[in-house]
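A quick aside before the break. I want you to see a complete sequence-to-structure record at least once, exactly as it would be stored in a machine-readable document. Don't worry about memorizing anything.
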Amino acid sequence: MKIKVVVLSFLITAFLSLNFVIPQLAQEHLQAHMTDVQDAVYKYGLELTFEDVRLSYIPLRIRINKLNINTKEGEKVLSTDRVDFSSWSFVELYNITQGEMDFGDLTKLKISVQKLELNEVYLSPRLKSALTELGYEKLVLNIVSDYDYKVETRDFYLNELSVEGLQMGKLSVSAHLTDFSLPNGLDLKDMSQFQQSSVKRFSVEYVDNSLMTSVRSLAEKNNVSLDRYIAFEKTDTKRDPANIEDSEIKTGLRDFLHNPQSVKLAVTPDKEIPFKDISLMMMLSPYKLIESLQPSLQINGSTVQLYKGN
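That is the input. The structure line, written in C-alpha cells, reads:
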C-alpha cells in the first residue's frame, strides 16, 4: 500500500512538472522570442504589437492574440484576432523559442490566422471596387496552412491550404506529393521546389457562404439575369467546355449559381505523375493529360462528367 502511495505521489509530481514548470520555462523563452521578432520587424519600418502570447500544453499550441502590424507612424497595415501555431512536438517548440530552429525547418506545422484584415489602402482599386459593388464594407479573411512531411518516405501532405472570406466563401487546396525533398525554409508560394516531385492526389474546393447571394443581388440591381451576369452565354464554346450547350458541366454550374453550396475538383491518377511531365503534356497533349490525371468534379455534392473517358 505504501509503495502505491509513493508511486502515485511521483506521478502527481511529474504531471505538475509537465503542466506547470516546463510550460512556464517555455513561456518565458517565447516572450523573449517575440521581442526579437518585434525588433526584426522594426528594421523594416514596421511595428508589431500583440495583446499576449500564450502557450497551451494540451494541445501543444502557441496562440498570439490581437497581433497587429502598423507603420512607425502608427498607420495600420494589418490586424488579426489571433494567430495559432500547432501540430509540432515540444522539442521543436523549445528549439523555435531558443532560436535554434526556424519555422521553415519544421516537418509538420499548422498555422491558423483568424480575422485578418488589411488596411484598405493596400488593396487594389479593382478589388475595392468589386467589394463595394457586392456590398462588403471590408475584407476579412481566415487563413489556414497545414502540412506534414514524412522524411523517411519523402511524402509531402498538404492537409489544408485555405482562404476564407467572412460572409463570402472558402477556397481550400489539399495534396499528396511523392518524391518530395523539403527545402530549407518551405515556401508554398514557390512552385519551383515542387518540380522534382510527383502528384498522387490533389483537390481544390470552393464552399460558398453568401458570396453568390451578393452576386445575385448585384445582378438583380443591374436588371440582368444571373446566368448572363456570370457570362454563361459566351459565344466562344471551343475554349470553355462549360459553355457547350446542354453540357453536364454547364448544367451543374447553373445549379450551383441558383443553389450555391460547393464545387470540388479532385485529381487522383492511377499512378503518380511527375510535375515536369504535367508541364510537357499540357503543351503537347492536353486531352491525354486529362485522361492521366483522372479528374473528378463535384458540384453541390453530385459528380458531373468532365470528359468522355469518365
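Two observations worth writing down. The radius of gyration is 25 Å. The helical segments are 2-42, 90-98, 125-133, 211-221, 226-229, 248-258, 275-284, 286-293. We'll return to this after the break.
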